[in-house]
Fold this protein.
Amino acid sequence: MDLHRKYDFKNHHFAGEEGRLIPLLQQAQAMDGYITRDRIHEIHKNSGIPLTHIYGVATFYSQFRFKPVGKYMIRVCHGTACHVSGAKDITEACQDHLAIPSGETTADRLFTLETVACLGCCSLAPVIMINNDTFGNLSPKDVKKIINRYKKEGPKEAAQ
Amino acid sequence: MMKILVGLGTCGIAAGAEETYRKLSTHSQADGAGFQLGKTGCIGMCYREPLVEVRDDKGARFTYGAVSPDKVDRILEEHIKGGKPVDEWLVWSNDTVGSDKPYLDNQSRIVLRNCGTIDPESLEDYLAVEGYQALKRVLDNKDPEGLITQIIESGLRGRGGAGFLSGMKWRFARMAAGKRKYVICNADEGDPGAFMDRSVLESDPHSVLEGMAIAAYAIGNVSVGIIYVRAEYPKAIERLNIAIKQAEERGLLGDKIFGTDFEFHVKLKEGAGAFVCGEETALMQSVEGKRGMPKVRPPFPATKGLWDCPTNINNVETYANVPWIVLKGAGAFNSMGTENSKGSKVFAMAGKVKRGGLVEVPMGITIREIVFGICGGIKEDKKFKAVQMGGPSGGCIPAELQNTIIDYESINKTGAIMGSGGLVVMDETTCMVDVARFFLDFTQRESCGKCTFCRIGSKRMLEVLTRITEGKGRETDIDLLLDLAQRVKNTSLCGLGQTAPNPVLTTIKYFRSEYEAHISNKKCPAHSCNQLLTYSINDLCTGCLLCKRACKFDAISGEKKVKHVIDMSKCTKCGECFKVCNFHAVARD
Ligand SMILES: Cc1cc2nc3c(=O)[nH]c(=O)nc-3n(C[C@H](O)[C@H](O)[C@H](O)COP(=O)(O)O)c2cc1C
Ligand code: SF4
Ligand code: SF4
Ligand code: SF4
Ligand code: FES
């Protein structure tokens, strides 16, 4: 697929090829789940932006990943409010339950566990997000239950 | 007809508001339902989500808290059909009932004027509350200079952290030479523990767009505005996109706004997860598709910003104030607040406070009034210890200084900063050394790496703080931290490094004895630092075996119905036994 052509340039104001780099990388990650080597080369070929520059930018921003991720991305908030409300216990519960350290993906490629800084629902601390759904006021036990629901029922039902 | 509104901000949705909405919608479609169902944004009482508001024809408003789907039937039966509010679930009303009335009644809402009252996805709703009237007035007046003077006179200062006079900034950008200029809205909101900008964007996106358009007109030669918004805020992005499209279709944004020659297009730019990109020069680098590394100022963005063009950058909340000031006048704004801090400020209240959520208060109110008067004091009535203001750039203000007033200069005097509005409340169980460690961990990870002391100095400070919390602190460590802090402050290029030591400096200043307890006595007075705790089993033990099974390290021995014992040489201090015991028999010290 020609990522570059698919990208909607007309509605993007950001002057020059370089201004489009971050949206291009974001789109590549949305398509593949992570940034693949092939996409980087594709962007380079189509835009003429030097490879070193593309890698430099891609590695600077924590949003970009270079490893495949699971179907469900679990983000445990470690912002200030969540930190003082027991985020550590939540991360530990996830790690125990999935048997992976934070930053890794389960062998069945179902879950990836990450810690992030503030999801913006601090008054519900501690908070986690699974893909685009947010869960608040959690105890370690709740987290295990939620993960089990995702395992069994898939995202639609589990998010209810 | 009665109207029922459900708060569908991120907090509400996380608490299950969508289910409540679905349940209500099955009823609203029935014949003779007797009410109309609507959506709104963040009502502000995040601690009581899901929130549902009932409005009758006479203007009475009743807000119910924690409305799970199972409460819907009774509210419909008694309130909608029977006309009698269900008092026990009411949290607020514009009548006399409601358990948490002080929370909303003691606020002064300018920025949040429409949050939780209008449907953020409806342009009609915004137009009905004088939406885009300020922009229209500005275009009718054709007096950008006078407009800037009005904003200066209002005393509005930037709400993104530094507190620079917004009107002055606009004037610099207006005076700068250039055929093409930009305005940017900083919605990166990176401070962990803050969510004001998210709520405003989710609940009242048009007010921010209108504020940007007014700024664009005031500065002149601006046809494009950019909103740089965090990728972690999907709901805000979705609603902004809807709002931009609606406004363009109505001729309120885009070409020929209100039929004039004024042209203004707004573009969204999603951040990519770098805290430093909240810093204005780094943000512009990022929009240009580069690594988000701050640049030396001057030149300031007002003369040389995005693509080297004069650029005005303001925070979300700053822009949201603008339409109100244009409509109500500079005097209405500057009659509120203190001598040098005018108007109101929105705070995101979180942490160990009973009522956490969004509050907007007039400048000049004390910290105590916010924490106790509005937010109802500390959870479980524990002891109030400190508030953290300004996030990683700010500091901890101790309970003794709770009479400090909210005003840029007074807060600065304590060593904290006003910041963007994150206010995290801490109680006696929060360890202040751990809080300092937490922020340093954050800043050293987010340092862009350009300046040596910010990059490495902050790492060294983190190591020292970590070893203190692990009981390996040395007598010289406090002095070492103070020394490093000064060096990091003095040699850093941007605000991130210059302010990174603030959490450490303020905690040492106000809670030095806590540092000393960690270092000299190897004790954590807040019982929070795991490595410094010792676990033992006391006489309350019933011998239930629970802790023995829970201990993953075989550190507990004991028979059924016999008091158990912990083997200190095996215990890793994981705390599991403390958590599982139902008889308060595990002691932690
Ligand atoms: C490390 C760092 C992070 C910042 N993050 C933000 C932010 O998330 N939002 C914001 O509005 N300003 C942030 N600022 C302040 C901006 O640089 C800038 O001062 C502000 O956007 C100007 O808007 P104002 O005048 O309306 O406050 C940050 C500054 C620094 C040094
Ligand atoms: S102070 Fe830190 S974040 Fe700022 S430019 Fe220097 S290294 Fe980068
Ligand atoms: S869980 Fe509590 S009561 Fe039960 S054996 Fe352990 S210490 Fe004793
Ligand atoms: S603190 Fe952990 S390791 Fe120590 S006795 Fe309790 S459960 Fe076992
Ligand atoms: S600190 Fe966790 S949501 Fe803000």
Summary: The radius of gyration of chain A is 18 Å.
